[in-house]
Amino acid sequence: MQLKTTHWWKVPTDQKIEDLLSLDILQSAAQLLREGGLVAFPTETVYGLGADARKEEAIQAVFRAKGRPNDNPLIVHLGHVEQLPQIVPEVSTIAKRLIRHFWPGPLTLVMKHRGNLAKGVTAGLDTVAVRIPDHPIALALLRLADIPIAAPSANLSGRPSPTTADHVWNDLSGKIEILLDGGPTNVGIESTVVDVTGKTPIVLRPGGVTVEQLKKVVKKVTVDPALTHSKKKPRSPGMKYRHYAPRGELWLVHGDEKKMVRTIKQLAAQSLAQGKKVGILTTKEHAKQFQATLIQICGSKNKPEQVAHQLYHCLRRFDEEQIDVIYAESFPDNGLFQSVMNRLNKAANGRILKA
Ligand code: TXA
Ligand code: MG
After folding, report:
1. Distances (CA, A) of 157 to 76, 152, 197, 243, 273
2. Is 221 in the same domain as 333?
3. Rounded to an integer, what distance in angstroms lies between the CA atom of residue 109 and that of residue 128?
4. pLDDT tens digits, 254-289
5. Does 191 sit in the ligand 1 pocket, CB within 6 Å?
6. Domain that holds residue 314
């Protein structure tokens, strides 16, 4: 692949959308998107890699830059809910309710499309995933571009999603035209993907909006059984890949708190004795008890928002220090921790230990 010059542009993080709309750098980035270029930008969840969702060439460039398998469709990002009818012929009552409560925000809805997007965006499916992000820079860019923008997470396929401009730079410099730096993202894990094509909404990927929050708005919500039974085929193509993988071997340790801490201590000591570089993914409550090559404190065990916010950064740090084996604490399987556990389970790829 021919190397591109990547421009890293810092965007002010303290301005309202109205003020951002008049910034030269955002106008240039929007213009570049309209011309088929690739622009990485911050959203409230993770950084996205944007391209014109109607241009097949631009979409193929996204797949190439990420090294993403072509059967994994992209999320289309809009700046206004008024743009939705351009790509979706019908919005169900349930979808309307969800939109009213959660957009702009970390909720992606899967709906039937009109067939006017580049084929690569939907990977040939008759549905499209759509969301409106809740981030002033993303919204200003989307409104200036005024076209549907396909944007997967701006990481190399198989690596943790990027939550800072540094992460994007490490994965994609030389492969994209512009990186808009808006500082660290807020939520830290991706949006919740919900299929609203049937009577009952189905959660395909847990994320920034929790199942509990969804249930407050629509009475019945189901969760794709493949999320809890590893043998079932997921309904969302992307969920079958081993995402969020650190380079070292990650072991997820289950069990009640005391036993979990004791087991991680023992395992780390054994691995250190074998001459391995050992990482521990822990919380501030337990960190003092451990010894390892690199201890990553992912916030407080009582603050799921902190853990979600820091998770991918911690996973990337293990790679930077070339850690061989990582022992990770587990969290309760509800609320935002459910989304965190989904990512940790994928990173562990079946390496689960019961304390
Ligand atoms: O928070 C997010 O959602 C971020 C930011 C940038 O918006 N984006 C993101 O995109 O995480 P990506 O491409 O990394 O993940 C998109 C997920 C994949 O699991 C994909 O398979 C699924 O959405 N998806 C996309 N279109 C779909 C469809 N038509 N049906 C089912 N799943 C779909
Ligand atoms: Mg991704």
Report:
1. 18, 10, 27, 7, 33
2. no
3. 8
4. 999 999 999 999 999 999 999 999 999 999 999 999
5. yes
6. 249-354
Give me the count of residues in the chain.
355
- For ligand 1, is residue 153 a contact (CB within 6 Å)? yes
**DSSP-H helix ranges across 229-297:** 257-273
CB 185, CB 163: distance < 8 Å: yes
Q: Is 75 in the pocket of ligand 1 (CB under 6 A)?
A: yes
Radius of gyration of the chain (CA): 20
Instruction: Find out whether the beta carbon of 45 lies less than 6 Å from any atom of ligand 1.
Output: yes
Q: Measured between alpha carbons, how far apart are the two ends of the chain, in Å?
A: 47
Q: Is 16 exposed, middle or buried (0-12, 13-18, 19+ CB in 10 A)?
A: exposed
Q: Do residue 149 and residue 282 come from a single domain?
A: no
Residues 89 and 23 in one domain: yes
pLDDT in tens, 63-111: 999 999 999 999 999 999 999 999 999 999 999 999 999 999 999 999 9
Tell me the Ramachandran region of residue 130: left when phi exceeds 0, alpha when psi lies from -120 to 50, beta otherwise.
Answer: beta
What pLDDT score does 245 carry?
73
CA distance 262 to 17: 49
Do residues 231 and 308 both lie within one domain?
no
Ligand approaching nearest to the C-alpha of 108: 1
Q: Is 301 helix (H, G, I), strand (E, B) or coil?
A: coil
Stated pTM of the model: 0.97
- Tell me which residue has its CA closest to atom 3 in ligand 1: 191
Structural element, H or E, at residue 217:
helix 211-217
Please, which pLDDT band fits residue 242 given cuts at 50, 70 and 90?
low
* 277 shares a domain with 200: no
